[in-house]
Amino acid sequence: MTGRFPLIAATALCVSVQAQAAEQHRFDVPAGNLSTALPVLSRQAGVSISVADADLWNGRVKAVRGRMSVEDAIRRMLAGSDARAVRVSETSWRIERRPPSPRVARRATSPPRHATRPGPAPDGVAPPGDEIIVTASKTDLPHSHFAGVATVLDGGDLAFGGERGMESILARMATVSSTHLGSGRNKLFIRGIADSSFTGPTQSTVGQYLGDIRLSYNAPDPDLRLYDVDSVEILEGPQGTLYGAGSLGGIIRVVPKAPTPDRMELQAIAGASVTQHGDPGGDLGAIANVPVGDRHALRLVGYMLTDGGYIDNPLRGQDDVNRVEVRGGRGTFRLDVGDDWTVDLGGVYQATTSKDAQYADKDAPPLTRYSLVEQNARARYGMATLVVAKDWGDLHFQSSNAFISHRLFERFDASGADGEPRVLDQSNRTRMFVSETRLSRPFHEGLGWVVGASFVDNRTRQQREYGELSFQAPLTGVTNRITEFTGYGEATVELMPKLLVAGGLRVSHARLGGSGEDVPFAIAMAERAITAHRTETDLLPSFSVLAKPVRNVTLYARYQEGFRPGGLAIDSSFVRRFRNDQVRTWEGGVRFGEKGQSPFDAHISISYSRWRDIQADFIDSNGFPSTANIGDGRITSISGAFAVQPLPSLSLEVGAVYNHSRVDELFAGELRTIATRFAADGQAPQFSALLARLGQIPNIARYAVRGAVNYAIPIGDEDFRVNGWAHYVGPSRLGIGPILGEGQGDYVDTGLAARIGNERRGLSLTLTNLFDARGNRFALGTPFVEGSAGYLTPLRPRTLRIAVDVAY
Question: Is pLDDT above 50 for 169?
Fold first, then answer.
């Protein structure tokens, strides 16, 4: 009854709201080029506007001032030009050249942009007719002018088929991968830049952002659910100049929908799922946009989800032990304080509870694990935000500030060969304050630039306890602190028609410190020098060039750097220091097809990275995770994507990536003692062969391929859309070192989704893991149980979900 009440209340609230009159907005958009005026009008109206023909960006448009509807504003702006506007959905418009080329009704190929819009977007390729704006460039750079691989996923597409958070992104991107410990515990990787399998003191290799707010520093992916999201942008390769530390592999930026004061919006989504060999689950979400007065608005999102378990533990007499429950919400209150100043006050909270681990034993029957203890986990993520923004003609000012609290508790089975149940409990507590202020000129008339400054203060405390269930003794823990001051700037200039260059520089100064937790007094005194404060200063340059030598062909080359500061790690009863690491990447690529000008889009890129002093986790001599600099690495990555629309109602997409990596001097320095121990045990020949295999960077598949088919047609007054996809993940290995040399990967994930409905209501059906494959997504179960034959993390078995959605 408790789970039904929120759905009944949300539905009743939705039904009670009447359809709103045509909304009015206050506009102040200066005359100029379309590339100048369009981002300003889009922000003031709170709608998404795409451009079908890239050549239209340089066309002159008229000023728009006064209070009017979005349709009237766009019509006035385009009056007398070669362009016209087409309404795609309630919050989405497309600008195209006059006269329009014949095409079928847009609703048949592009469902409404709301929380239940089905079907994944192409890998790095927009649907024909849409020009992507890469807002993660911080200068609103058109995708056709971006020198690199940028993918923009539609938020409605990601939410279709059941809200799965980061899993929705992984299913749509061949170049993005993850560990699979469980929701709220995973680490993300992009394009072959991966360090380890554990949640330790190392900073993430992928920068994660909600809007312009950094989500974490050296904590795992919080796996925030993607309800009410406008889009998700993924930039591949180091992004050190614009985003600083922790963006070695790239960034993932989630763009939430903004509050709008001109209309009331209410949405509700409810789904029920059944999992073969497991327990049922369900999900419920509600979204509300409430105008407050004439100029202010409040936008609220709330959700609760339950994923049924499917792993059995006969040793404890339990079935389907790995149930996961997620409860969370997000809210933003937008104040229009006058003179084009806006202030957004926001908050995010999510609680994720895993009842037990989701791995199985390799030598056991399918979906079975023999564990003496329950291995539960809890993640609690909270964030308070303050964002101030203003437009001055061609300039945009923004100051983004946030305080973040992130807690994670994990329990591992550490039972010994004597059969006595033992556990290792690990707690990570992170608190962080971040602030970034920037001034930018969105790209137009051949110039775009951004300058900014940021401040980060992060403190992470890791504590561990080991022992029997009734009593655990504290083990050595560690606290890491970092305070970082940064200034940066980047500019993009069109030197001549069809030739653009961009360059930038970031200066980052960090003060680092830390200390051991529960360290014996004598050892602590001996290591005072290690835990002392120290400083680091880093320069991160970037450079790129982009050319369009012939129609529908774009060539680009790019150089970029990224880094992570050092820190302290636990090694047995000691606390020791690891150094910062740095990536230098050279990249080149070619894109084929212009948006709206050809029936296909395609790209291929190749990158080469040198990774110095790689920070990675390994298993120490006592069997516990530790962290050290393991050597230098070389990574070559080739990726590509292709999308074609042979029929107005049918589109096909394929994306693929190949990664080749090698670590030099794998056991140099801190890890040489492990090699010595193998030699002393008479295992030198086996160790040499193993070492050659283990030179590959962990958790990154050598190759991955994804394909999807999308079909959409109108049926009477309704739209029907069906989408099918398959994602092959090639073989990889678990981690660095002989103990973590387990193989994983080499599996296919599949899915089929369909929706019939319109902008106001819809019925969805989703079937995932069509062939009920097992696979092995992650070979880590627990590193502490002796005598084990190994572990595997299977795919969720075949799951069917039925959902309804309503919107007012």
Answer: yes
241, containing H or E segment: helix 240-243
Token representation of residue 198 = 């554990």
* Tokens representing residue 755 in the block: 């929706």
E strands present in 179-228:
188-190, 206-210, 213-214
| SS3 assignment, position 419 | coil
Structure tokens at 60: 């002159």
Please state, as a whole number, how many other Cβ atoms lie within 10 Å of the Cβ of residue 262. Answer: 21
CA distances from 351 to 90, 188, 228, 327, 424 (A): 32, 20, 18, 5, 22
Q: Pinpoint the residues of the chain covered by CATH 3.55.50.30.
A: 1-102
Residues in Cβ contact with 418 at an 8 Å cutoff, skipping those fewer than 6 apart = none
Tokens of 658: 């190949």
Alpha-carbon span 683 to 802, nearest angstrom: 55
Half-sphere exposure (Cβ direction) of 471: Cα atoms closer than 13 Å:
1
Rg (CA), the chain: 26
Report how far residue 94's alpha carbon sits from residue 265's, in angstroms, rounded to the nearest whole number. Answer: 22
CATH topology assigned to domain 1-102: Phage tail protein beta-alpha-beta fold (3.55.50)
Using alpha carbons, list the distances in angstroms from residue 259 to 215, 226, 228, 269, 343: 20, 16, 11, 19, 11
Nearest partner of 605 among 137, 154, 175, judged by Cα: 175
The torsion angle over the Cα atoms of residues 83, 88, 93 and 96, rounded to 10 degrees, is -20
Q: Which CATH class name applies to 252-807?
A: mainly beta
Q: Give the DSSP H or E segment for 201.
A: none
pTM, two decimals, is 0.82
CB 97 within 8 A of CB 78: no
Q: How confident is the model over 565-599, as pLDDT tens digits?
A: 887 777 666 667 788 889 999 999 999 986 545 67
* Highest mean pLDDT: which range of 48-57, 305-314, 655-664: 305-314
CATH 2.40.170.20: which residues of the chain?
Answer: 252-807
Residue 284: Cβ within 10 Å count:
21
